[in-house]
């Protein structure tokens, strides 16, 4: 991108920031596009001028309306391709995609809304889920709950200070291999070397999506191969026990955010030693493979199968109650019992026993749940095998139990927080912040997430009479945020309300405050401001 084109793009970014202060009319929007077209003509970019003129006519031909900054940004996506792509490149890009291309989650982080808008539009054909966070700090806080397959970091001049990038890359390095692509307009070699030194896998200048697609896909394939080498059991093809802490971190995050439990089942093949002694180890291997196949074929994509060691397997059933999990395990037990296994000229069958535990306490360790499941498995074996036993309460408090009981006695009432936003990423980031503030105060907190206002109004939290905080998005499907606010105030609910919005219109803010909003925060969040306002509301629950 030549200097003149880069300067025009920078002016467009400045204009976008001004749009966030309030809605713009169709007339103002069209005038801006015509100005871009005139500037493009002056710098010798007729392709940009022609696209700007086309969009201007399109905006003018429609019904007069008010545009938010986000709506305007989506509208000019075709114009942005003229800045980032070669003139002969068609749009959308003809991305190379094989039938075996697997889904992946890509986290786009940084304050570069124009480039990310272009990228999301251009990569629409890719089998990827693209999520955007406006700051490197929020990205670092979102890694565990989102489990991305790749980070794409747009490094602005404000983020150019190594501390912000270093903190993000250090956090990424604590997890199993997570590739990071840094996009920096600063093409100096010293900047590239610094990014590589901090841990980036690739450093590029803002580039066309086809090139970036190839770079990201190559890194995702590398990640998958590393995961297979390190985390997959060679014999059965399921995960090995090294993957277990990673699964638990994700499911515990789900439990903390939504209160939904998961279930862990520890399975053990019955009389497996006799099979090895009588039929040989090749037959034993065939039995292990058959059990792994049955477990994979008859569980859901969000469940996880792990070979724990020897003839023991773990099945972790996500978002599942104990009653539901028992029904799944009984089905698996009957399915495996009826399988005929052919190995080394022999035909045989086998059964398994299992210990089941419902993981419903986010502050418990992984070892705690494994001990309970192992004790239940022991009971199943003692009763003859080929059965499922559920874990009971531990006979004596394990290490840390007395400490948690003391904390519950001294911390008073539990905080209750509802996050109502149709943006999954926003919910995850806010939930992590609430948990951080609760931990600082040694308080327990119930966090419930809702994708729309209607489901929140129908929830037990809304009806049970507790004092709570509602973090409420202004614009949502099914029911507008202001409608939810009116219901809360009409029914005199004992709650504090923080409203989130991408609009910076002072009239709208005043309107919401008149209707009873306690705090008002605009997107993209200023992290310290959001934390300070939320901290103030949480303290109010104790008054």
From TrEMBL:
Record region (Disordered): 388-410
Pfam families xrefs = GGDEF, Response_reg
Ranges of residues in domain Response regulatory: 105-221, 416-538
Domain GGDEF, by residue range, is 260-393
Q: Name one GO molecular function term.
A: protein-glutamine glutaminase activity
- EC no. given is 3.5.1.44
Q: Answer whether the UniProt record assigns the keyword Phosphoprotein to this protein.
A: yes
Q: Which UniProt keywords apply?
A: Hydrolase, Phosphoprotein
Q: Does the keyword ATP-binding apply?
A: no
Q: Which residues carry this modification: 4-aspartylphosphate?
A: 473
Listed InterPro entries: CheY-like_superfamily (IPR011006), Diguanylate_Cyclase (IPR050469), GGDEF_dom (IPR000160), Nucleotide_cyclase (IPR029787), Rev_trsase/Diguanyl_cyclase (IPR043128), Sig_transdc_resp-reg_receiver (IPR001789)
What the entry lists under NCBIfam families is as follows: GGDEF
Protein name, entry field: Protein-glutamate methylesterase/protein-glutamine glutaminase
């Amino acid at each position: 991108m030549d200097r003149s084109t880069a300067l025009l793009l920078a002016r467009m970014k400045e204009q976008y920031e001004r749009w966030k202060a309030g809605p713009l009319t169709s007339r103002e929007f069209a005038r801006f596009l015509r100005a871009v077209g005139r500037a493009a003509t002056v710098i010798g970019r007729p392709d940009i001028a022609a696209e700007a003129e086309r969009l201007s006519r399109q905006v003018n031909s429609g019904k007069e309306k008010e545009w938010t900054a986000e709506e305007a940004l989506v509208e000019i996506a075709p114009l942005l391709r003229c800045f980032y792509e070669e003139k002969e490149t068609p749009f959308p890009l003809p991305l190379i995609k094989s039938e075996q291309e697997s889904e992946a989650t890509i986290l786009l982080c940084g304050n570069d809304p124009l480039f990310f808008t272009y990228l999301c539009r251009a990569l629409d054909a890719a089998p990827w889920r693209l999520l955007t966070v406006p700051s490197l700090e929020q990205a670092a806080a979102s890694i565990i709950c989102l489990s991305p397959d790749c980070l794409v970091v747009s490094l602005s001049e404000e983020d150019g200070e190594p501390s912000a990038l270093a903190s993000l890359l250090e956090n990424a390095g604590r997890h199993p291999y997570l590739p990071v692509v840094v996009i920096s307009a600063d093409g100096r070699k010293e900047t590239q070397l610094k990014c590589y030194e901090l841990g980036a896998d690739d450093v590029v200048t803002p580039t066309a999506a086809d090139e970036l697609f190839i770079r990201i896909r190559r890194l995702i394939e590398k990640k998958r191969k590393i995961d297979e080498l390190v985390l997959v059991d060679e014999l059965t093809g399921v995960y090995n026990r090294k993957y277990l802490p990673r699964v638990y971190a994700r499911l515990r995050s789900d439990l903390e955010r939504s209160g939904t439990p998961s279930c862990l089942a520890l399975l053990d093949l019955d009389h497996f030693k006799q099979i090895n002694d009588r039929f040989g180890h090749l037959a034993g291997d065939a039995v292990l493979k058959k059990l792994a196949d049955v477990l994979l074929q008859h569980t859901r994509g969000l469940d996880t199968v792990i070979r724990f060691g020897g003839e023991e397997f773990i099945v972790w059933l996500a978002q599942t109650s104990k009653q539901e999990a028992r029904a799944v395990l009984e089905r698996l037990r009957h399915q495996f019992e009826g399988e005929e296994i052919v190995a080394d000229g022999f035909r045989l069958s086998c059964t398994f026993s299992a210990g089941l535990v419902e993981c419903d306490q986010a502050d418990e360790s992984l070892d705690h749940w494994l001990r309970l499941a192992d004790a239940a498995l022991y009971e199943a074996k003692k009763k003859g095998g080929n059965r499922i036993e559920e874990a009971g309460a531990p006979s004596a408090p394990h290490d840390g139990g007395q400490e948690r009981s003391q904390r519950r006695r001294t911390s008073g009432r539990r905080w209750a927080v509802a996050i109502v936003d149709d943006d999954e990423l926003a919910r995850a980031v806010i939930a992590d912040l609430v948990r951080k503030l609760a931990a600082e105060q040694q308080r327990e907190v119930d966090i419930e997430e809702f994708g729309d206002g209607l489901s929140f109004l129908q929830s037990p939290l809304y009806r049970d009479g507790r004092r709570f905080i509602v973090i409420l998005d202004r614009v949502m499907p099914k029911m507008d945020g202001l409608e939810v606010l009116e219901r809360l105030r009409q029914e005199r609910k004992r709650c504090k309300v923080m409203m989130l919005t991408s609009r910076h219109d002072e009239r709208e803010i005043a309107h919401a405050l008149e209707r009873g909003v306690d705090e008002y925060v605009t997107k993209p969040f200023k992290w310290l401001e959001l934390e300070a306002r939320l901290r103030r509301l949480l303290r109010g629950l104790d008054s």
